[in-house]
User: Fold this.
Amino acid sequence: MRLYRYIGPQQIADRVTASPAGCPIRSAADVVRWARESGQQPGPDGSVIATFVIDATGLLLIADRHSEHVACAGRLPVRSAGEITFALSGNEVEITAVSNQSTGYCPEPDSWAAVMESLTASSLEPPSGFSPRCVFRLCVRCAAKNIVKDGVFECGVCGAELSVTYNCQTARAESDD
Ligand SMILES: [Zn+2]
Assistant:
């Protein structure tokens, strides 16, 4: 399974410690406990949104949605990253949405397989796929990270054409910032 290195700003990585801030989730009960102990305030529909990563061993780690993915992961490479939405009702946990929206790691849409595998191993029902499903590309002209919109492969900063193939985990991406 592919691993994604952190490719966001170095200053953010420098602020976080090497021990993962994310809470390991192996069951629905772990989600309920995390929500209670971290003082999450569910919305009127019972929903709680969290930052998540899937670590190199396939374990789901979640943290408060205002956390950086690199902090959640303890600066380590991940199999996927994004936001996860839970609907909580007593001890019932439903996963209503998962996105791969992480500009720190830029995971590909097909990292969904890692999410599905991890959730299934924790007896949590995965939704049908990423929503939103982000396609990340690095602009080779100006080095901006882009989320491709409506299938238009054009840099939102400088207008250059974006690569049709995934290119965010290159040496160049690692050294920008
Ligand atoms: Zn550009």
Remarks:
- The pocket of zinc ion is lined by residues 139, 141-142, 144, 155, 157-158, 160 (CB under 6 Å).
- The first helix runs from residue 10 to 15.
- Confidence is low (pLDDT under 50) at residues 173-177.
- Helices lie at 10-15, 28-37, 69-72, 112-121, 171-175.
